[in-house]
Amino acid sequence: MTDFDVVVVGAGVTGLTVANRLHAAGKSVLVLEARDRVGGRLLTEDIEGVRLEVGGQWVSPDQTALLALIDELGLEMYSRYRAGESVYIGADGVRRTFEGEQFPVPATTEAEMERLTKELDRLAAAMDPLAPWEHPDADELDRISFATWLAAQTDDAEARDNIGLYIGPAMLTKPAHSFSALSAVLMAASAGGFSNLVDADFILDRRVVGGLQRVPLALAARLPEGTVHLSEAVTTIEWDADGGTVFTGRGSYSGRRILMAVPPTLVNRVQYIPALPPVQAQMRQHISFGLVVKLHITYDTPFWRTNGLSGTAFSPYALVHEAYDNTNEDIDGETRGTLVGFVSDVKADGILALSPEARKQAVLESLAAYYGPEALNPVGYYESPWMADEWTVGAFGTSFDIGSLTRYGSHLRQEVGPLSFASSDIAGLGFQHVDGAIRMGEAIFRRYA
Ligand code: FAD
């Protein structure tokens, strides 16, 4: 058995950030990863001849920790394709094209959306995303669902559906009636304001050449050989005030500190001897993953561009609530066009109950409503499988149920003896994003150094 300064459980961006900083500071560190690869929710794969970003992929200007790391690692970026008109399908079922970020809705709905955006910006500005429970209206906002809050704000259903879309299906990937208004404000505050979430050109700004998984791959490559053990899931941790011993199917490793760099939902999957304090075990039963199916659909050509479309499409009423041009601009000679689309929360439940063929057909018909009948004939179709992957079990990230952010939030980042907890799911700025994973990793390093 070897003694390490720190044993890190999980080789996602959070765990690898900590390991890199500790190694550079001369500390001994071991990283144990359940999967046979590093990167966690970041995965770039060649699927039937098309390179796809199965997990996270976009980088936005507010993600300064991620931008700094991309720079430090010497990686390059390119802009998401966005020339041309976007498509919106409204409550009346009519397809309309538009430019800019304001959906082509009736003037009264537009005014309501602007008013709600300002109100959410105001609430977010009063929040420290690291401590949402300290918000002046925290108790009130955490007791009601985001859907209830929206209903109290406006009678305009289309305004409610669109504002709900940005945080429900598009971010927390849960129905707006299942998370609190406080969680919605946290999502906005963590991205620098609700206005940023509304602006697809901001929030989905750039991509990394070669795919975002190059970040964790480069972090792992900087560690000495043997630092990262793959295919070694941690099952049990014995701990006391002086340190802990981590058990996997292959061996045991002791460290003065143990970092659980895994989503909160997977913290409870490990057995702790002695057990974690009651509040820790209780708290994580009130956190759950959202559900979204990320879809990649490849065509012989990016036909929508020829039709004057950017590929950007939205509708709270469509099966695929948002879609974008996701063609690999960084591959020389790429002539095919790829769309990325998302089916979220209860709509995801619905399509996952269908046969694969019926699911594909439903998705293609939803795309055809945005882009026309050419969308019905792809050369490639792929559904990211995060919801069936035991080391994630959902997408994009986790969030609290109603009332639990104020009840338990202050315990989220608390240490227990030698045990610490970190992941993008418990970040402040960059919550649920790679930026938050890096921020959590840096914060743990500062605590350990
Ligand atoms: P993870 O990546 O989940 O890493 C945790 C690691 O711990 C995993 O490798 C897991 O295998 C391992 N592990 C778990 N339990 C154990 C155990 N018992 N023993 C050993 N190892 C264990 N973010 C963005 O910034 N931009 C985007 O465009 C974006 N899009 C996304 C799209 C999808 C489909 C998904 C799923 C996520 C997306 N995200 C995006 C979110 C982003 O990918 C995550 O926030 C981030 O990668 C999380 O990093 P992490 O290290 O905190 O956690």
From TrEMBL:
InterPro entries listed in its UniProt record: Amino_oxidase, FAD/NAD-bd_sf, Flavin_amine_oxidase, Flavin_MAO
Domain of life from the UniProt record:
Bacteria
Q: Does the keyword Oxidoreductase apply?
A: yes
- Does the record bear Transcription in its keywords? no
- One Pfam family assigned to this protein is Amino_oxidase
Q: Where is the Amine oxidase domain?
A: 14-441
Instruction: Write the record's keywords in alphabetical order, separated by commas.
Output: Oxidoreductase
List the cofactors. Answer: FAD
Family membership, please give it: Belongs to the flavin monoamine oxidase family.
Q: What is this protein called?
A: Putrescine oxidase
